[in-house]
Amino acid sequence: MLSLLHFDVLPLAELEVGRHFYWHLGGLQLHGQVFMTSWFVIGLLLIASVLATRNMQRVPQGLQNFMEYVFEFVRDIAKNQLGEKEYRPWLPFVGTLFLFIFVSNWSGALLPWHVIEIPEGELAAPTGDINTTVALALLTSLAYFYAGFKKRGLGYFAKYIEPTPILLPIAILEDFTKPLSLSFRLFGNILADELVVAVLVLLVPLFVPLPVMMLGLFTSAIQALVFATLAAAYIHEALEGHGDEGHEEHA
Amino acid sequence: MDPLVASASVIAASLAVGLAAIGPGIGQGNASGKAVEGIARQPEAEGKIRGTLLLTLAFMESLTIYGLVISLVLLFANPLA
């Protein structure tokens, strides 16, 4: 009874949680609506970057100017966390995380996905699905392990017993809680935004949900920033080790 | 679903998100108060303080969101049902 929630009062005020448009691929069940929206987001980002870099001017104009602003913003995220010397190789990863999450969140809030009918479930922000956020968080885990190994080899494991071996269980636990908290934070925030807006639209269809929608835009932007910042901070921690943390931050 | 499990899940869901809101509420209040103090003492640092404050508020907010995730799981994807 409670496992599915489905209100259908207005054509634009549907609220569906736990329903998915399944694609079957071999023995796997895929959430088709997430794939469609994330392909849309990826396409949007690709088209924007291709258009902005196709005919580059020395004095940037229009789209190129905007994309240069975006690039500088993303570069500052990486630089603030990783430091002047280390940030360049990790800029593509951190930047892609930020841009994909940001555009996904805002596409869920700004685009009228509900106009497009699909057989089951509904189109919404791809980051409102736990699978997307877990994938992003596991990628972040892989990235910081790779960073640590590449920089320090097997000495990377010294960080587990560095101040004292008593903290070994906690150090190991940290590797599991990092992706868990990253993924739950993003998933919960985006789904909560959508639920709050949907419930308010259900109660009062006009004008009243607007301030909450603005708040949702704000929090989803902040969440994208938080995810990218944390990913960069974890990579920095793996690169530097626990001992000399925080010395050359805020450069 | 068993009505007992259903009612217990609903109560647990409300408790999860309600209790999870207490700590971060206090923490966010403390942080915002200190930030206002800092801005009053040093108005030229407002931009930096606001940026840091927003980031830390998002971290505290995520604690409540964990409770919310638990309650959403209980309501929409209950493993006990």
From TrEMBL, chain B:
One of its GO terms (cellular component) is proton-transporting ATP synthase complex. Keywords: ATP synthesis, CF(0), Hydrogen ion transport, Ion transport, Lipid-binding, Membrane, Thylakoid, Transmembrane, Transmembrane helix, Transport. It comes from the Bacteria. Its main location: membrane. It is found in: Cellular thylakoid membrane; Membrane. The chain crosses the membrane at residues 53-77. Gene3D superfamilies: F1F0 ATP synthase subunit C. One of its GO terms (molecular function) is lipid binding. It is a multi-pass membrane protein. InterPro entries: ATP_synth_csu_bac/chlpt, ATP_synth_F0_csu, ATP_synth_F0_csu_DDCD_BS, ATP_synth_F0_csu_sf, ATPase_proteolipid_c-like_dom, F/V-ATP_Csub_sf. Residues 11-74 form the V-ATPase proteolipid subunit C-like domain. The record marks 61 as: Reversibly protonated during proton transport. Belongs to the ATPase C chain family. F(1)F(0) ATP synthase produces ATP from ADP in the presence of a proton or sodium gradient. F-type ATPases consist of two structural domains, F(1) containing the extramembraneous catalytic core and F(0) containing the membrane proton channel, linked together by a central stalk and a peripheral stalk. During catalysis, ATP synthesis in the catalytic domain of F(1) is coupled via a rotary mechanism of the central stalk subunits to proton translocation. NCBIfam families: ATP_synt_c, PRK07354.1. This is ATP synthase subunit c. The gene is atpE.
